[in-house]
Amino acid sequence: MSRHPLPPVIDSASGRPLPGTGLELEIPFFDTDPMGVTWHGHYVKYFELARCELLKKIDFGYREMAASGFSWPVVDLRLKYVKPCRFGDRIRVSAQLAEYENRLRINYLIHNQAGNQVLTRGHSIQVAVDGSGGLCLHSPEILLQRVRSAL
Fold first, then answer.
1. Which of these, 7, 9, 37, 139, has the minimum number of CB atoms within 10 Å of its CB?
2. Under the GO molecular function aspect, what terms does this record hold (predicted)?
3. pLDDT tens profile 66-95
4. If we measure between CA atoms, which residue out of 48, 52, 43, 123 comes closest to residue 84?
């Protein structure tokens, strides 16, 4: 686990920074095309790895989500490809919690470690869905508690 370069988002209720995290990866051969450039779909996988680390940090990983009785589908995912990742590149993938009271928004940044260049930016939005399939207009109390405990 490494320090993440995304600017912190300040929680309006506590005035403290929301949790963020980062992880380091080396681009494997099987993630690249014949020119050694990472296939665009794998960036989503890298975001997911960072999101899982962030959710673990607030003690609300996918197992805890399922046990809470809510599902959290991704309803929006945005990526901005700035420069390609290539086979063998060492990258840092950062995830920063940006919203949690009504939805779960996580911002992402991928940059290479050699030149510290931004390669990809993005965000994901997840919403809570209750056991009957109903969309929740506010995040369930369990998520609010977990985030506040991590502050």
1. 7
2. fatty acyl-CoA hydrolase activity
3. 899 999 999 999 999 999 999 999 999 999
4. 43
